[in-house]
Specification:
The protein has 12 helices and 9 strands. By secondary structure, it is of the alpha/beta class. The protein has 2 domains: 158 residues, Luciferase-like domain (TIM Barrel); 115 residues, no CATH class. The protein has an 8-stranded parallel barrel with strand order 1-2-3-4-5-6-7-9, surrounded by 8 helices. α3 packs parallel to α5. The longest helix is centred in the C-terminal third of the chain and has 19 residues. The protein is globular and about 60 Å long. The relative contact order is 0.14. It comes from Chryseobacterium lacus. GO terms for molecular function: oxidoreductase activity, acting on paired donors, with incorporation or reduction of molecular oxygen. To bacterial alkanal monooxygenase alpha and beta chains. InterPro entries: Bact_Lucif_Oxidored, CmoO-like, Luciferase-like_dom, Luciferase-like_sf.
Length: 334
Amino acid sequence: MKNFELSVLDLAPVKQGSTIQQALHESMDLAQFVENLGYTRYWLAEHHNFEGIASSATSVLIGYIASGTQKIRVGSGGVMLPNHSSLVIAEQFGTLETLYPGRIDLGVGRAPGTDGYTAKALGRNPMTINEQFPRQIVELQRYFSSKNSDALVRAIPGEGCDIPIYILGSSTDSAWLAADLGLPYAFAAHFAPEMMESAFKIYHEHYQPSEKFPNPYTIACVNGMAADTDEEAERISSTLYITFLNLIRNVREPYSPPVDDMDAIWNPAEKAHLLQKLKYSFKGSKGSVQQQMTDFQERFQVDELMVASHIFDHEARKKSYEIIREAADALNQK
């Protein structure tokens, strides 16, 4: 079984009875905690118009997290590129890389990270997204290149910065693009597991080596809720279930505390749908998580697991990442 890196995906969750400021402070505390545990990177995801997510100004939050950490890589998982000008993103991440050299990642996706009304407010044109997204990635590569110094439009800061670009996807479309451009590929298995196997197969079979990335590199984002016992892990997982159930029901509210009986909240159809969508969730005690990791890695052989943790209590969330780290270390040492 292939050894793998371990990283964190954070949405800066805003909880019921708390504040956005507290959510951001807890993200900083978590980043410092997982850095000490040896996690590879800490990514923040761009979302808009969600009361329970405070990571909308992703570049700003990356700078905040990088300022309070020392060695962990910090980046976007991702910036939803068609929401922005390529030049502005190049300048923002060029500034971050200048301030925190060798520690900044730029993960990019094409989805809006929000609803249709908000996507329109962001200035997106859905008719041109599939053409715009690949073109913007090439633009970013050009702006970051030192060879762009004679161009009429330059990214300053940004030009000459060594900022790795990762392509994010939840279907097979971006797998083709990542393979063609010779870039690392991260799949959103934490909410869209159905096409991951096909996407990774396409990516590996069609990968075109690039100067920065001579070999393919895959990241699978999964959910992680670990605790001392399987029963406690199941209970704290109810916050994740309620969060996704609210998306189905178009309910926008801060994260909910855990409950003892989800069957009193969802109906059988909702339960079946959600459990399928969340099938790649490492959940349980250390032993259970370790077995789930083993089964997953024997099948997918990814280079990196990125764990998203929707846990209400901050200390329980930190403990979950500690248990997951221990489980991963036990596997990688075999």
